[in-house]
Amino acid sequence: MTAPVDMTVPIRSVAIAQWLRPTHPDLAAVEIGRRHRLAGGVGSPLVERVEVTPVGSGGLRARFEVVAKRASSAEVVALREIAAIPGADALPELIDAGTDEFGPWVVMPFYPGSTMPWDAEAPEAVFASLARLHFRHLGSAGSLPADLPRVDETYCRRALTDFAPSWLRKSQRKDPHPMHDRALSLLNRWSDDERIYAGLDVLPATLLHGDAYGLNVVVAHEKSLPPRLIDWGGARVGPIMLDVAMSAERSSAGFSAYLRAWEDVAGCPFDPWQAEAGHAWARAISNAMFVGAVAERFSPTHAEEMLDQAEAALHRFGRLLAGHSPGRP
């Protein structure tokens, strides 16, 4: 029998010490303790919670936990990029990262708390942090590393003709519902809809989390601590509102928090046309993309609501696009 492959992520004491020293100036040593397996994300074969103990020069000990994760190269790039964004408290810290024979890996703090329901709107702090992230990389999307996937025509077409239909057919086999045929028909039409691809030309691109919804938000048990937007395995470069429209309506507190934070960091308001058109396009493509996954994981009824929203959003984007002057930002 072949021995199991040891894919554990290395925990380097030097990196842990560097992370801890600002709060433990008398740090003399770092002890690495037990590992506890966690449920990994879709793209991660291994995620562990690891105990680390800083030992002070006087022998005083404390206990912390970190997350060691087998990551994608896109996740490593994204976590390195967000580390330099001031005031974005809801974004996770990066303690260490590297690559070995099994691929890229990251080590981050463990944030105790609970994830939100999948369809819940994230806290305002998450949207404020995303605004700071998006503004920082606005206009520099082309210079971001090639390891980050791009939301381009190929990406959108595959989402509509492959990714979403595969989930729909899986759901249909498990729980047949009229929604499945309707969804497959709409996705087929939308894959050739000029409005889908026009959005890529008129909406500004930036660095995205790529999957900013409830299950990727950890709300701390201690109310004084900020929520954290975790699991950056879906990081990519694409239109700004893809990170916002997935869980926030334009009338929501989260959307308002995003606009306030943008104005704070940019020194001017977010362009109203870009906000409305970007949200409409992003709601249409994200709902279409994930309608199958929602049908399979939750229910066809929830998926049908997403289809209704996608149809309405794409129609709204078409109207906004028709009235858009090419000279406008």
TrEMBL record:
Domain of life, source organism = Bacteria
* Classification via SUPFAM superfamilies: Protein kinase-like (PK-like) (SSF56112)
Write down the Gene3D superfamilies for this protein, in alphabetical order: 3.90.1200.10
Q: Which residues form the Aminoglycoside phosphotransferase domain?
A: 89-261
Q: InterPro entries, from UniProt?
A: Aminoglycoside_PTrfase, Kinase-like_dom_sf
Its name, as the record gives it, is Aminoglycoside phosphotransferase domain-containing protein
Organismal lineage? Bacteria, Bacillati, Actinomycetota, Actinomycetes, Propionibacteriales
